[in-house]
Amino acid sequence: MKAAAAGLGIDKIGIASAGPFTELKQRLVRHRELGYESGFEESDLDKRTEPALLFDNPQSIIAIAIAYPSKLQDPPKSEPGARRGILSRSAWGDDYHNVLRERLSRLEAWLKERVPSCRVLSMVDTGALSDRAVAERAGIGWSGSNCSIITPEWGSWVYLGEMITNLPLPPDKPVTESCGECTACIDACPTDALVGPGQLNAQRCISFVTQTKGVVTDELMRKIGNRLYGCDTCQVVCPENKGKNWTHHPELQPDNEKAKPLLVPLLTIGNREFKEIYGSTSSAWRGRKPIQRNAVIALGNFKEASAVPELTEVLMNDPRFELRATAAWSLGRIGGTAALEALERARAREQDKTVLEAIHAAWTSLRESEAATVASSLDEVVIVDKRKQRE
Ligand code: B12
Ligand code: SF4
Ligand code: SF4
Fold first, then answer.
1. 97 falls within a domain
2. Across 89-105, average pLDDT
3. Is residue 320 one of the residues assigned to a domain?
């Protein structure tokens, strides 16, 4: 099976025993108690850790890994007047869920041809099991301080999937490599979401925040930067990923305009157009709202004054309060007379409490910074005056 992996389009296969994940269970209980869950995980911790609850008489779990690209070829520049956002590498190319499911069904067909009595249950990401815990047990890679499974061959730029089976296959040993003394990912995480080696407070992880649909806090909006979906920082800085860029799966190759799109057109993208462009990628699962909201945030973080008319349009007319509130924040961050006027006009007609609060916060901070600028220029006048008097 392992020798056939490459022919099946699979980069690495490992075998794990199908016994309960007892240590993981304790870990997940503690994780929940600390409030570190994202809410995207399967909520039943028994199902997450006991393969026998998902599959009748499981004998082993076949774990697979598929490597993906980490570099864009000739990426378009993000420039004043044409600012761009970025999708995380896990959303480049075709949706990895579909790609891995297709590989798992190829593997299933290969197995059934040889062992007709074989039964399998395949999963990728949305299944109950922890894909990382299975991969670790199956010797695919080690569990890094950035939480990712790092394979000695492909680094952490791998998607994971698995198949519970009734085949009693000999289990692989976990890999012996480890992070050693390195702490680069923990140091680089913009929000200190990595609260310790291999321990993530998902609520502070930018990858999670970019996938939420609500209004984000000022602190986290500033840290989102121009990320439209996901975050790769803790993997980009990882020395184990240095020089690793995998281009052998054509379906996973990025389209530059999708991976690094212009921000302004995203503000008005319709549902149908969004599905046409992004529907085939893994970034579309939460719909267009989070990505549009993140585009509004990114323009604010770029302080892109040329986008004030479009942001004003969002603030005045977008039916979604989350978008209007975020546009208020963004205009406050950009500043200038046009932004201030837009906030004042919106304040006069806005009915939603959250948006009104956002407008007020943006307006106040703008006025304060304006007052500070006036005050500092007055200070300068006074200093100049005093100098003149002395002369
Ligand atoms: C929920 C989820 C998220 C959440 C929370 C992530 C997290 N770290 O918990 C959010 C939205 C933030 C997220 C982000 C990302 N995700 Co995600 N996510 C998942 C999902 C659905 C469940 C993960 C989960 O249960 N986490 C809870 C933690 C506690 O458990 P765990 O990580 O599964 O298991 C590990 C720990 O428990 C640890 N552990 C166990 N016992 C102990 C004891 C001690 C002392 C310590 C320190 C650790 C430890 O070891 C286990 C194995 O590594 C999985 C798919 C799946 N079904 O498993 C994908 C998955 C983990 N995500 C994936 C990816 C690619 C990402 C992103 C890179 C996407 C991006 N570019 O933005 C980021 C990475 C963020 C990060 N640093 O982890 C891949 C990971 C591939 C890989 N090479 O590791 C997965 C496996 C999807 C897939 N099938 O490929 N994700
Ligand atoms: S994905 Fe980004 S925010 Fe999340 S842990 Fe990694 S560096 Fe921190
Ligand atoms: S950056 Fe260093 S500590 Fe973090 S996962 Fe990579 S090797 Fe491990």
1. yes
2. 98
3. no
